[in-house]
Each structure stands twice: as C-alpha cells, then as structure tokens.
Amino acid sequence: MSTDDRFHKQRIARGLETPAREANELARKLGLDPFEVNYWIVDYDEMNELIAYGGFQRRYPHWRWGMNYDRQRKQRQFLGGKAFEIVNNDDPSNAFLQESNSLADQKAVITHVEAHSDFFKHNEWFRMFGESPNAAAMLERHAEAIAEYMENPDVSREAVEEWIDHVLCLEDNIDQHRPFTATREWDGSSATTADLDERLGELDLSEEVRREVFDEAWVDSMADERDGARFPADPERDLLAFLASHGMAYDEESEKAVEFEEWQREVLELLRKEAYYFAPQKMTKVMNEGWAVYHESRMMADENFAGDDEFVSYADHMAQVLGSPGLNPYKLGFELWQYVENRRNRREVIEHLLRVDGVTWRNFAETVDFDLVLEHLEPDPIVADPVGNLDSLDSSDPRIDAEALERARNGALSDLSRRAWKLLTYEGMAERHYSLTKRSNRGFLKRVTQAELERIARYLFDTERYGSVEEAVTAVDRTAGWERMFEIRESHNDVTFLDAFLTDEFVEENDYFTYEYSRMTEDFRVTSTAAADVKKKLMLQFTNFGKPTVAIHDANFRNRNELLLAHHYNGVHLDVREAKQTLERVFELWGRPVALKTIRKEFDQHDVDVARRRGREPEPIERGILIRFDGESFEEEELSDAEVEEIAATEVDYDTKPDEWL
C-alpha cells in the first residue's frame, strides 16, 4: 500500500470516529449490548478478499478462496452488486468498511454492525463454540499450520490440497446442536470386531497362535461388551469427528487402509473446528440479518442518524438490501422481528384491557374503542419531542436521562435537534418508538381474533382491575415488545424462530406462498398460501443449513468393516451424481468401502401421461436404494421398505429442490 493510500484511509477513518461512537451510544439506548467493534477502512480489492475469506484477513492456502474472490469480483463488476460491509463474530468484533462508499452508506453499515455485534454476543448458539472466541487469531494459527505442511518437503502440497478437498466436502456434516469439543474429547470411541480383526491380521500371526490366543470369542468380547450391538449405537451426525477418530487413509500403493499421517489428522481437526465456528452464523442467518436491519432502520430513519442530505441515499441502500430477489433473509428476518414486537405489544395491551370493569373476551370487540386505545397509546410529548419540551423535562422521570438533561441545559450537548435520543433512557426510547402507534401497524391491534382473546383471558390472573380504558392503557408496559425480542434473540435459531412465529397471520399479512414444478403443466405453479405449507418449505431450507441430513449408521456394515451412511429422507431426494462424488471423498477418509442408503423418488412416464390427461399430478414412486463405492466402482441395489423404514419421511411433501422454493 502506498503512503498516499494509507493517509487517504486514515482520513476516512477519522471522519467516521464520531458516527461510530454515537452509533454505539444510540444502540445502547435502544437496549443493545454489543461487543466492542474495531472498524477498518479497506479498498475495493481488499473488500473482495475479505468476503472471499469469510470475513477474515488470513485463511489457510487453498484454491477455494481464489474461486470465491473471482466470483465476488465478477458479481460486482457485471451484476452491479455492492459490498456494504462485512463483520465477524469475535470479541472484539472487526468490521470492514469500503472506502468508496458514501457517508450515508458508511453510517448505515455502522448501525447494522452494532446490531450484529450485539447478536453475536448474546445468542446462545454462538456460545456453543465457546465463550468469546478470538477467531481471527485461531484462523491465523490454522493458516500457519497448514502452510507449514504445504512447505514441508516431505509432504506434497498437492496431497494437502486434495486432503482439504476431501474434508471440505463434509464441512456441514457436523452436529451443530452439540457444544464443540475437540475430537480427542469427543465421546464416540469404541472398537468394532472388524477393527480388531484387521489389526490382528496386520500382525501376521501364525494360525496356531491366532486360534489358541485370539479366538473368535476373545475378539467379540474385546470389541464390544454389547453382544451384537451396532456401532455407533445411535446414528452419528458428526461425520468429521467420527472419521477423525475411526477413519483411515487409503494407500494406493498397498491398496489398503493405513493410519492417518500426523498432518492429515491435524488438518482434519482444524477444518472441523472451523466448521463448528461458522455453524452458528449459518443457523441464525434470518434472525441475525433481520435483527441488524431492524435496528439499522430504527437508528438511521427513526432517529435521524441519516442526515437530511443522506436520507435518499440511505433509502436506496435499504431498498437494495430488502429488494434482493429470491428467499431474502434480510427481508424475512426484518418482517418477523417486527411481527414479534407487534404481537407481544398487542398481548400486553389486551391483558390490561381485559382487566377493565365490564370488558370480557366475549364483548371485547363491541366494548373497546380501538381508535381511542391507540390515541392513549401515543407517546407522551416529552418523549416524542424532548428537545421541544426541554424546560419541562423532569430529571427524576425514569424515561429521561438525568445526566444528559443536565448537560443539555448547560449547553454541553450540540445539535440536539438531530440527537434527541441522548435525552432519553431505554424506557423513554421504547415509548418513543412504540410499534402499535406506527402508521403501518395501526391495524394490528384490531386484528386480534376471538380465539386469541379467549386464550389470553383463560390464563389471565385477575390481580388488578381498572375503572377505565384510559387507566388500563396508562399502565401498559411500553418495553414489553422489545423485551420479548431480547428473549428470543438469546435462545432461538432460524428453525425454532420460524417454527414459533411463522403464523397464519404473518403469512397472510406478508403474502407468502409456495410454488412447485407441475408435471401436469410442465411449469411452476403456486400450490399453497397456507402457513403450514409455507413453514414446511422454509423449515427444510434452514434445517441442517438446507443440506441433506446424513448420519453414520454402521461402522461395520454387513460385518465387512465398511461404513454405512444413511440419508434421512425428507421428501426431497438426493442428486445421485453429487452423492457419488461425495462418497468418493468419504472413501478417502475411511480408507475402506463406503455405502449410502437413501430413498429415490421416481415417476413412471405412463403414470405421468395418464395423470396429465386426467388433469392431476402424478403420484411418485419412492424406492429405497443402497449406493456402494469400493474405491474403484459404484454399485446400486434396491432396498426393501423395512430396510429404509428408519430414514423414511413422515407427513412431508416437498417436490422441489431448496433453491426453487420461495
């Protein structure tokens, strides 16, 4: 980097110091508690490199990074994509801002990053990897270790790259629902009969010694006290840990399995650790991005963090983020978080209204004047416009920041017209931004159903009564919606988030639907607007990162020391070509033949023709198959229904691939 470039970046950084500091202060006023964030200014090429490296400045040597870089560069060059930011899960977090972005974009990125950093710090799924990871240092150590192996004259660089290819093919085949443990601590070690048989064979014992000392009864007792038990006893989803513990490398010269070399075992373990580090980001994509967009919008638009001359540019920025085609996690997450807030606020209001004398769940709609309720819910003028009411603010009011008020009255706070939030506490901010009074949400309270009213009333403790609607509304906790959001932010991942909040009301209000390929019309058609169907499609998209769920079912399949994998079929069959390519990789990590059982969905052409003439969809035929690879060739065999019963789908009907869904 030239001296001029360095000074240019330093000038940009100095210009962003105040926005970064104030964005953090504003985020804390809104109840966020982010990691400290280090902001770095980078140029166009550096940003592309960071995106290619997954948000870090250094990764292990491998061709995948160059491929990622080239794809990112071409996407921005030819498709008009724009990189706004990249931030990593670390303590402190590191965020990278592109020097060519406008000030409006930089401020939007900073507010977005503060919310991401809060999510990283408090979501429990990120704690599964361990407390406060120093990820940048960890990944740099991994890069140095792998680079040393590649530079070792006794190890072929091509062999290391190929080994990395084998492992990366399985990087999502971990058990992301269990806390990360190193392979040496992983509870999955046990010997199989075939393992001992093979090791005894390698000792070249005489037949007499083998018969007298190591007879079959001894081998069986040593292998496993559980007579006839399958190993592993239960399906194992952490393929990388199992292969690290029990796998072997296939040696082409001797044409048999041999123990891993030290570098092979270490590389496998390092990449497995990285897979666990990145897993929570994949598991919470919708939640995390929606959380960041929600708070970015609150700060940039609602609190005027975007200046008057920046707002149009910011609006364009947000339109690009929310307007991306296909399944957009930013848009879906943003809408779901708004729904969570509105729903909890509505429940809080209804619980108070049901305590008003004369109001019951049966007469609620006839008795309650919703417009009057919303009028009473409007923010108090002192929080709606604290600057205009500066002289009447009370420092003892829990909604007012007493210290900031004193500074404002002493003239120590500048430009209060754009920084009114400095005068408010968290409670004041919650009232100032109360969701039910927003113009876009004013119909939300009225949409309460009779069933919901009855459900709330059934579990309502009649501990306090109110003489009027106004009295009841005055007692409403304006922080209820935000507090509920913070609870959910701590404990959920995308699958549980969608399962809990993708309701009929949400789907109808936001116009979600499903579509599938029709074999009758030979095109795509809308199939359902029902929330249950939309949820099924989305849940499958996010379960196991949207990848097929494959587990190890038997490490001594058919008593031949072969590895049996099983695809837990969910209605979407595997791409057999890709499955075979993956089996070739697994073979290199097991060192012996590998097999995969799955269910294949087939359509008989005659049935398709008949169904088309009758104006209906043909029924598929589902067949269990076993695909086996012995290191040289593949063979397939059909399985009986009983043999695939434990992996068959139940009450699931997906006819499209994940990338064809919403």
TrEMBL record:
UniProt cross-references to Pfam families, sorted A to Z: SpoVR, SpoVR_C
Domain of life: Archaea
TM regions (residue ranges): none
Coiled coil location: none
UniProt cross-references to InterPro entries, sorted A to Z: Spore_V_R, SpoVR-like_C, SpoVR_N
Domain SpoVR protein-like N-terminal: from-to ranges: 16-346, 478-545
Residues of the SpoVR-like C-terminal domain: 548-600
PANTHER family to which the protein is assigned, alphabetical: STAGE V SPORULATION PROTEIN R
Protein name: AbrB family transcriptional regulator
Organism: Natronomonas salsuginis
